[in-house]
């Protein structure tokens, strides 16, 4: 199969996609140059309402040969609300593709790794060897015995990365195998055949299993030995390809679209209409007397998010008017303006709408008192971008009420459900809707109503006593919401006629379900990010598992640093990494135990030795004292607590001066004689442990179990030729220090090692938004400065509310003001319209 992979990939694509129409996709194939992938074949087509493009390529890294399959699927803007569903569908396709490639089921994987947006599987093929003992004479077999031996060989891995970008689903699959470990004919390699003539002139042949050769081979293909290597390579290649695809989408020409127009009323509710002519709209004498203020929201979509500006024009009563849209940079300011807009015709928008794929512009038309009259009304919007722009308009004809052509005089008005109502499920997927509509008018016979539900299904209802009433059951609605329409029919002059209609918008809201990657209750928060279920057992378990796995990554990063420092120990350190993965697999259902086992393992195998080496480095210029200190370490090697006490005591008693003794004593008391364990690689290379001890003794003190700054300082800094060491009180202090670092005119790649006395976990995640936990020893000056910029732009969780600049604390749903430290609790609303109340502590 591997010799004709291009044929295989086409076969799998046809199997997965079924009958398709092949044509040129709107998106041209992205270049994968620089990703480590050489593109071999590209195909395109359609499936389930989306246009897809497949790129298949190959590459080599050392002993690993790999193949890459990139699926790029483009959906129309109307499918944006269902991108989670589409992603899950393509995830299933990717697993089918993976199983077809390796010829085994996912359940057969010997090593599995899953995280947010990635999946990794490590396989070994199962093969059966036949061992035959035979006796023959003159070419004829007289007797034969056959035995079988099951072996594992030919390691392979599959790495899958998937993502949603605007209206695209992107799935990248990496299939890899090791050239030197691939055995094409195991019978020849692991079976030895010997033949001899016996005393009866017969040929006796024996086949024996080469156990020693196989055990040697087996030891080289274990998951803990090479699986980590495959996972690392698959992660890098798939990340490179995903980044190349997204960059290509951003740079590809794409004209914006106006996907809908919403006519808003004074209460902020609206009715969606299509662009174009809407017909006749009646007005009353009261409308003429008071004047009208009409608000229209033009919703737009631009795949590559390069809208430059919006402009509008209006003709009709009180017009004409035209101009560019006013842009508000603050969302709260935008909504405040919408609620208290001036009496004039204008357009306005929010800067976030301009810069994102999904956007829009509000056009407000003001018709002063006495200006409204019969005649045409037209609003046009121009969306301007670098790819040509687009234009949409809405128009109608104003006519005096009573002249719009309703000869029967019938009307129908829905009183329940109200417009914009939210229907909550009774139980899983089951909803009921109370329908009530008032019917007025006379002259027609055989009245009945047709109710159209959001999914398009229809139901006929009787009209009794001027009322349409029913309780409608809805199970597993296909859409999250839509329009309920009641159309009134009757017989007039012997013919059936539509007499009147009314509609109301409703949405279906189910309870939030952890783990399905869907915003079930439509509050803008998905799964365990929703405070409604954040404390459920599943979410608590998920957070614990995320913490445990992030701790494992932190330990592995430490070991990888040690590989760089001591390359001759690489094989030993790779075993340590493999053991960590084994602990992860063993205790994946018990995160607390996983953390304990990993910490115990690392303390015994790695950290204890590092601490001993750090103590020994203090006497690097005094071999005799260094030797005596080593003897203490060896004497108490089975008693780590006593070993630490004795070594610290020796350091204190044998320091070179009284000043150094005092500094070391204070540092020991503070509990920070050495930098944190994750500050790996040369922490004593510039200035030694005594410099660090002086720095700690001069600037910090220990009160109870807490280490605090002396005086009122919030940030302390230690400069060495290679690194800037920062110790910050909290996140705000660290961000304030970013300005001073920027003014030092150091290179952006200057290494900055950070210790945050409060909130280290939070800052670690901010410095690395991909989720890699907390290795703040690897920060750079540029990363810290850029982080501050991001926080100032409120792109990393900071936002304004009622004059406060807030961020979420470690407790879900509790937010803290950047300047005052005041805390607020989220009591409702979505991300764009949170409802918060001030609390004294953590709620």
Structure commentary:
- Helix 13 runs antiparallel to helix 14 (658-670).
- Strands 1, 2, 3, 4, 5, 6, 7, 8 and 9 form a 9-stranded antiparallel sheet that branches. This protein has a 6-stranded mixed sheet with strand order 11-10-13-18-17-16.
- The protein has 18 helices and 39 strands.
- The protein is globular.
Show the helix and strand layout:
Blueprint: H1 5-17, E1 38-47, E2 50-61, E3 64-74, H2 83-102, E4 111-115, E5 118-137, E6 140-165, E7 168-178, H3 186-190, E8 191-197, E9 203-209, H4 211-219, H5 223-251, E10 257-264, E11 270-273, E12 276-283, H6 285-290, E13 292-301, E14 307-315, E15 321-324, E16 326-328, H7 331-339, E17 346-350, H8 351-355, E18 358-367, E19 375-385, E20 390-400, E21 411-416, E22 421-424, E23 430-440, E24 445-452, E25 458-462, E26 467-475, E27 481-492, E28 495-509, H9 537-565, H10 570-586, H11 591-617, H12 623-635, H13 640-653, H14 658-670, H15 688-699, E29 700-703, E30 706-709, E31 715-719, E32 723-728, H16 731-743, E33 751-756, H17 760-767, E34 779-780, H18 781-792, E35 799-801, E36 804-808, E37 814-817, E38 823-828, E39 835-839
Helix pairs in contact: 1-2, 5-10, 9-10, 9-11, 10-11, 11-12, 12-13, 13-14, 14-15, 16-18
């Amino acid at each position: 199969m591997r010799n004709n992979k291009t044929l295989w990939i086409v076969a799998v694509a046809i199997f997965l996609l079924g009958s398709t129409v092949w044509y040129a996709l709107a998106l041209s194939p992205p270049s994968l140059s620089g990703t480590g992938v050489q593109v071999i074949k590209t195909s395109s087509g359609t499936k389930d309402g989306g246009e897809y493009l497949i790129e298949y390529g190959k590459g080599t890294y050392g002993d690993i040969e790999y193949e890459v399959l990139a699926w790029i699927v483009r959906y129309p803007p109307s499918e944006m609300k269902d991108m989670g569903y589409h992603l899950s569908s393509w995830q299933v396709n990717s697993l089918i593709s993976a199983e077809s490639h390796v010829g085994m089921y996912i359940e057969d994987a010997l090593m599995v790794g899953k995280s947010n947006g990635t999946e990794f599987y490590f396989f070994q093929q199962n093969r059966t060897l036949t061992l035959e003992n035979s006796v023959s004479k003159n070419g004829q077999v007289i007797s034969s015995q056959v035995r079988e031996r099951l072996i594992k060989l030919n390691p392979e891995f599959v790495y899958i990365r998937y993502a949603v970008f605007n209206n695209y689903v992107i799935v990248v699959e990496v299939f890899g195998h090791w050239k030197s470990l691939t055995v094409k004919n195991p019978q020849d390699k692991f079976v030895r055949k010997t033949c001899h003539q016996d005393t009866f002139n017969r040929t006796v042949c024996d086949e024996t299993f080469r156990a020693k050769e196989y055990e040697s081979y087996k030891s080289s293909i274990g998951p803990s030995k090479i699986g980590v290597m495959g996972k690392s390579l698959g992660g890098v290649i798939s990340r490179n390809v995903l980044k190349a695809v997204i960059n290509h989408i951003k740079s590809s020409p794409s004209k914006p679209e106006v996907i809908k127009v919403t006519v808003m009323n004074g209460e902020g509710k609206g009715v969606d209409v299509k662009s174009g002519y809407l017909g006749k709209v009646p007005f009353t004498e009261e409308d003429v007397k008071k004047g009208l203020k009409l608000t229209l929201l033009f919703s737009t979509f631009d795949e590559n998010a390069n809208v430059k500006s919006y402009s509008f024009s209006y003709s009709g009563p009180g017009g004409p008017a035209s101009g560019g849209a006013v842009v508000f940079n603050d969302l709260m300011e935008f909504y405040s303006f919408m609620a208290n807009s001036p009496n004039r015709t204008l357009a306005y928008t929010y800067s976030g709408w301009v810069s994102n794929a999904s956007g829009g512009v509000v056009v407000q038309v003001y018709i002063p008192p006495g200006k409204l009259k019969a005649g045409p009304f037209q609003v046009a919007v121009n969306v301007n971008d670098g790819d040509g722009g687009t234009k949409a308009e809405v128009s109608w004809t104003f006519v005096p009420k009573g002249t719009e052509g309703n000869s029967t005089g019938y009307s129908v008005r829905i009183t329940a459900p109200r417009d914009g109502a939210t229907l909550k499920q009774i139980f899983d997927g089951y909803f009921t809707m109370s329908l009530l509509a008032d019917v007025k008018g006379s002259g027609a016979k055989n009245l009945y109503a047709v109710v159209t539900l959001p999914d398009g299904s229809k139901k006929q209802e009787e009209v009794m006593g001027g009322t349409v009433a029913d309780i409608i059951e809805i199970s597993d609605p296909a859409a999250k919401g839509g329009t309920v329409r009641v159309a009134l029919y009757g017989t007039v002059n012997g013919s059936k006629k539509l007499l009147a209609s009314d509609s109301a918008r409703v949405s279906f809201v189910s309870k939030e379900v952890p783990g399905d990657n869907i915003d079930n209750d439509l509050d803008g928060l998905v799964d365990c990010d929703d405070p409604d279920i954040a404390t459920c057992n599943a979410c608590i378990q998920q957070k614990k598992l995320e913490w445990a796995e992030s701790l494992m990554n932190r330990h592995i990063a430490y070991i990888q640093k040690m590989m760089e420092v001591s390359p001759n120990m690489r094989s030993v350190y790779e075993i340590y990494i493999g053991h960590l993965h084994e602990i992860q697999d063993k205790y994946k259902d018990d995160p607390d135990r996983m953390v304990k086992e990993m910490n115990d393992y690392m303390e015994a195998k790695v950290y204890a030795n590092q601490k001993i080496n750090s103590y020994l480095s203090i006497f690097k210029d005094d071999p005799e004292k260094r030797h005596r200190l080593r003897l203490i370490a060896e004497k108490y090697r089975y008693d780590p607590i006593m070993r630490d006490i004795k070594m610290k005591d020796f350091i204190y008693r044998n320091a070179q001066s009284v000043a150094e003794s005092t500094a070391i004593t204070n540092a020991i008391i503070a509990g920070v004689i050495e930098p944190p364990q994750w500050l790996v690689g040369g922490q004593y290379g510039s200035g030694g442990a005594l410099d660090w001890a002086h720095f700690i003794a001069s600037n910090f003190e220990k009160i109870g179990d807490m280490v605090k700054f002396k005086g009122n300082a919030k940030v302390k800094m230690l400069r060495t030729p290679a690194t800037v060491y920062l110790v910050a009180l909290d996140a705000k202090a660290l961000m304030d220090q970013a300005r001073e670092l920027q003014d030092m005119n150091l290179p952006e790649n200057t290494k900055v090692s950070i210790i945050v006395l409060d909130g280290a976990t939070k800052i670690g995640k901010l410095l690395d938004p991909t989720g890699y936990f907390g290795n703040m020893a690897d920060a750079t000056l540029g990363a810290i400065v850029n982080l501050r910029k991001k926080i100032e732009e409120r792109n990393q969780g900071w936002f304004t509310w009622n004059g406060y600049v807030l961020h979420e604390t470690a407790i879900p749903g509790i937010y803290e003001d950047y300047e005052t430290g005041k805390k607020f609790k989220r009591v409702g609303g979505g991300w764009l319209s949170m409802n918060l109340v001030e609390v004294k502590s953590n709620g």
